[in-house]
Design a protein that fits this description.
The complex is a heterodimer of chains A (592) and B (308).
Chain A lengths: L8 E4 L20 H4 L2 E2 L12 H11 L5 E2 L7 H11 L19 E8 L17 E8 L4 E8 L4 E9 L7 H12 L2 H7 L8 E2 L1 H4 L14 E2 L2 E4 L2 E8 L4 E9 L12 H14 L3 E5 L2 E7 L5 E8 L2 E16 L5 E5 L1 E2 L8 E3 L4 E6 L5 E11 L9 E10 L4 E10 L5 E11 L4 E6 L4 E3 L4 E4 L13 E5 L4 E5 L15 E6 L42 E6 L2 E2 L10 E7 L2 E7 L1 E3 L2 E4 H4 L1
Parallel strand pairs in A: 3-4, 18-19
Antiparallel strand pairs in A: 1-20, 2-12, 4-5, 5-6, 6-7, 8-10, 9-11, 10-11, 11-12, 13-14, 14-15, 15-16, 16-17, 16-24, 19-21, 20-21, 21-22, 22-23, 23-35, 23-36, 24-31, 24-32, 25-26, 25-28, 27-30, 28-29, 29-36, 30-31, 33-34
Chain B lengths: L2 E3 L3 H5 L9 E3 L13 H4 L7 E4 L9 E5 L9 E5 L10 E6 L5 E5 L15 E5 L6 E6 L14 E7 L4 E6 L11 E6 L4 E6 L5 E6 L6 E5 L5 E7 L5 E10 L10 E7 L5 E6 L14 E8 L4 E5 L3
Antiparallel strand pairs in B: 1-2, 3-4, 4-5, 6-7, 7-8, 8-9, 10-11, 11-12, 12-13, 14-15, 15-16, 16-17, 18-19, 19-20, 20-21
Chain lengths: 592, 308
């Protein structure tokens, strides 16, 4: 996946562990240790192994050949080799080895050549000698397609060919061995197992019983799961044979009686871990003077709470309530998506991976702060009508912070407008909210909304609003105006300010979807807490609602809120074009 | 109709004291009694080509559709109708028609809860066979306080023709670590709950007589198993649910949960499986797989029929 070039560079430092011992009020006691201790490998990691280099080179070499098919890596006898060659000269058998549209090669590999079985020939009308017949199985990685040819080596021809969609042939021995080698050389497996397991310790039974499906339902890569049994338990290592890397690790009990242990797949590993560690408990975070708790919600994305900087309370909470997506081509067509947890939630787009914590560097390479980021994805993204949303909180050492989010498409069309609804509740009990008039700051006496437009005035060409307490300290609010170096083109945002009431919950708890998909005016949901009788917001605890408006674009070179699949090295990879939105809050004393 | 199958002399000698030893054998019944709602004809629809749908994602509520080829989702729709009252439940899911042609349905959230507040998700609506008007029929009890994590209430219905009993599954109040769902047996004439199975998040109800018993099949929403419970001649539950068979390791995913169970004229089961985790991921993003199970008289068990 290509990340949009940003002015600042993230140095990645991931926190994937689930420290369930730190709090007593969580629900993690209901999970067994196997879930809590499971490991999800970061999908962005470039970690691989030297011993796969030869295979990668072989793949690249094969893709450059007129017949871009990797030959069977297992030892074959002369008849099997002959059958393989005959099959590869058959135009029907090799029909799916290239993209019909642009003639680019797909990564294909002969997985096996086997003596034909009687059942293979049941539909063959002309008499053939079974002993002369071989079954050649080819796997197409990007299409997840199995093509099988029945070859008569005596007649030197293919008798019949058929394909099986979304199916994988028996994994060849050399790939099983490679999967085991990747597993035993992975630090995560060694740490979970206690020592580095030997190749003899690995069982591939799980692979043999799931011939027709991958363990990686979400990445749609070819994955297998070597297991290592120890002390009555099985350690599952899911290995991605498309990218040659470990996906994750989890223990299960090995029972001799009773129900079978659940099949461990990429999806189950991810959903169980994310739920146990981030949906059921808050995680404390302390860094660069900032202190907070964060957790995934049922429908309001990643929520941060009790946020303080150098001991001073800043935010009661901040979260992403909704994504409203409308398409201009069809009146009233669109969706109102909530983002949140994978199990038991109101989320339409869910978290697959744990939140990530990243260092932020400035242009000079200096560490200036950190970001807390969460991705929510539809399973089939970037296929049409599937979505990918990224939520990000940035915290800087100088006290600035930003509440941000991005859509990464792809949605149902190129005429879409995304409207993320942020809720930012400040901690100070007595605040005032003011807008820059062009010459001075004008306080808002009552709850109100306003739209950022082309004629909006900004103090110092940046700040649209300020939020101050009685002592005059507080924050300047800088909306996104293509000025944060993240590729964002401006938010054209609706800003609403409401009073935070102690007696009525106006969104502090998990909110159901508060607005419909397709309103183009200020009716995005927060106005419900203002109309019909706006409350006084002078010297009050305040909530700022921020609804950005982001128009997607699929035109070449101008892609925005968009994603597409492209063939690279014979497999599909995703090109992502995020559209980041969200305001920065700058401490007023920083300006002084 | 009921025959006593004698397993042992002791059982027959003491049938009252040892009622669990006796097993009813019930004649086969295809459980087909769906009536045709009379109002369809008054609207000019041909009942042979018409059906009710709640699955058009661009139309909230229920629709009456006339198709060139009913059963084929790609066939051209030649006529459609929506009574104004058919939207009052928000997005709807199960549609059941009784022998008098009355239609029973219930709300089911689609992508979000804007039109399907959780508080209404345990409501059964009835469309009158003569007038076509939809009215609230009854509200099932909420066993628990409304739980914002679980957006679902009623998720399945099936009608037993013999007894006029509507079986309704609700998962309202269920939580990640607490299976609080129920299957209710409702006498449609008296509008009374006559029996219930508790602590079960049943999905995809289906009835079959294939095993010589009147049996209700369902998935659980929690795992890949298909459960079965026997129904007695009054439509009440007899005994406790048992695992009949499983979808584990079947199909392209290997861990499907039951979405729907249909019974054919022979009592064989068509089980539609898909991913389900009690969230609001759009159904179109999920692949559904059909699994067929036949009852093997010799082995006395349900056997998965491999696709040809």
């Amino acid at each position: 996946m290509r990340i949009f070039a940003a002015a600042f560079i993230f140095s990645l430092a991931f926190l994937f562990s689930c420290n369930n011992k730190t709090t007593s009020s969580d629900n993690t006691a209901k999970y067994d240790d196997d879930v809590l201790k499971s490991v999800i490998i970061n999908a962005d990691t470039l970690k691989t192994f030297d011993f796969v280099n030869a295979r990668v080179e072989a793949i690249k070499y094969a893709l450059q050949q007129p017949m871009p098919v990797l030959l069977c890596g297992d030892s074959l006898n002369s008849n099997q080799k002959l059958a393989q060659q005959i099959a590869l000269h058959d135009s029907v058998f090799t029909r799916s080895t290239k993209d019909i549209g642009n003639n680019q090669p797909f990564r294909s590999e002969i997985f096996g050549v086997y003596p034909a079985r009687e059942s293979d020939l049941s539909t063959i009308k002309n008499p053939v000698n079974l002993a002369d017949c071989y079954r050649v199985e080819m796997y197409n990685y990007p299409l997840n397609l199995t093509t099988i040819a029945l070859v008569d080596i005596k007649q030197q021809k293919v008798i019949t060919t058929f394909t099986q969609q979304q199916t994988q042939p028996e994994i060849p021995l050399h790939l099983k061995n490679l999967a085991i080698k990747i597993a035993i050389n992975s630090t995560e497996v060694q740490e979970a197992y206690g020592i580095k397991p030997s190749e003899k310790d690995a069982l591939m039974a799980s692979t043999k019983t799931s011939l027709n499906r991958t363990r990686c339902e979400r990445s749609r890569h070819l994955c297998v799961a070597p297991t290592f049994v120890k002390d009555g338990k099985a350690l599952w290592a899911i290995v991605d044979l498309t990218d040659h890397k470990l996906v994750g690790v989890r223990w299960t009990n090995v029972g001799t009686t009773g129900p079978a242990a659940p099949m461990i797949t990429e999806r189950r590993l991810q959903d169980d871990k994310v739920t146990a560690c981030f949906c059921e408990k808050e995680t404390p975070l302390q860094k660069d003077g900032w202190k907070m708790n964060y957790m995934l919600t049922s429908s309001d994305g990643l929520r941060i709470a009790q946020v303080s900087f150098n001991g001073k309370p800043i935010l009661q909470s901040a979260k992403l309530v909704d994504w409203h997506v409308s398409y201009s081509g069809t009146d009233g067509f669109g969706y109102s998506d909530a983002v949140g947890c994978p199990y038991f939630s109101q989320a339409a787009v869910i978290a697959f991976e744990p939140p990530k914590i990243m260092e932020i560097k400035d242009d000079g390479g200096n560490f200036t702060g950190f970001a807390l980021e969460q991705t929510f994805r539809s399973e089939q993204w970037p296929s049409p009508c599937n979505y990918n949303y990224r939520q990000r909180f940035e915290f800087y050492k100088d006290g600035r912070f930003r509440v941000a989010a991005a859509s990464i498409g792809r949605g149902c069309g190129n005429d879409g407008t995304y409207r993320p609804v942020f809720r930012i509740a400040f901690a100070t009990e007595q605040n005032n909210f003011a807008e820059w008039s062009g010459t001075n700051w004008n306080n808002w006496p009552l709850e109100k909304w306003q739209l950022q437009t082309a004629t909006t005035a900004y103090a110092e060409n940046k700040y649209q609003y300020q939020l101050t307490d009685n002592s005059g300290t507080g924050f300047l609010m800088q909306p996104a105006n293509a000025n944060f170096g993240d590729g964002g083109r401006g938010d054209n945002a609706f800003v609403y300010v409401t009073q935070s009431k102690s007696t009525i919950d106006e969104g502090e708890a998990d909110l159901v979807t508060i607005g419909p998909c397709c309103n183009t005016d200020y009716h995005q949901g927060p106005e419900k807490f203002i109309e019909p009788s706006p409350d006084n917001i002078q010297n009050k605890k305040l909530v700022v609602w921020y609804v950005a408006q982001l128009k997607n674009d699929d035109s070449k070179g101008r892609e925005y809120c968009w994603a597409e699949s492209v063939l690279e090295n014979g497999v599909y990879v995703t090109k992502a074009y995020p559209c980041f939105a969200g305001p920065m809050f700058v401490p007023i004393n920083l300006k002084k | 109709m009921l025959i006593c199958r004698v397993h042992s002399i002791a059982c027959c000698l003491l049938p009252i004291l040892f009622s669990s030893c006796k097993e009813e054998v019930v004649d086969f019944n295809a459980n087909l009694c769906k009536g045709s709602p009379a109002f369809i004809k008054t609207l000019g629809f041909d009942s042979r080509f018409s059906y009710f749908s709640s699955s058009n994602m661009n139309v909230m509520g229920m629709q009456l559709l006339q198709s060139e080829l009913p059963g084929n989702v790609n066939a051209r729709i030649t006529k459609s109708f929506q009574h104004p009252t058919w939207k009052k439940g928000g997005h709807l899911a199960p549609i059941l028609i009784d022998d008098a042609g009355n239609i029973y349905t219930s709300p089911a959230p689609f992508i979000n809860l804007l039109d399907n507040p959780i508080a209404k998700n345990n409501t059964i609506y009835r469309v009158d066979a003569n007038t076509g008007e939809m009215e609230e029929f009854m509200r099932l009890p909420f066993q628990d306080s409304i739980n914002p994590q679980n957006p679902y209430g009623i998720i399945a219905m099936i009608y037993l023709c013999e007894t006029g009993t509507l079986y309704v599954s609700s998962v309202a109040g269920s939580r990640l670590h607490e299976e609080n769902g129920h299957i209710y047996a409702i006498n449609l004439k008296t509008k009374k709950i006559i029996d219930q199975v508790d602590n079960t998040d049943a999905m995809g109800l289906g009835i079959s007589y294939a095993a010589g018993k009147r049996e209700l099949f369902f998935g659980t929403g929690r795992d890949t198993d298909v459960q079965v419970i026997t129904l007695n001649s009054e439509g009440k539950f007899s005994g406790k649910p048992q695992t009949a068979f499983t979808l584990q390791n079947l199909g392209p995913r290997g861990d499907d949960k039951v979405r729907r169970i249909k019974t054919d004229n022979s009592g064989n089961l068509s089980v539609y499986g898909m991913e389900f985790n009690f969230n609001l991921i759009a159904p179109r993003e999920k692949q559904e797989t059909l699994y067929r199970f036949n009852y093997d008289e010799t082995q006395k068990k349900w056997v998965h029929q491999q696709a040809p």
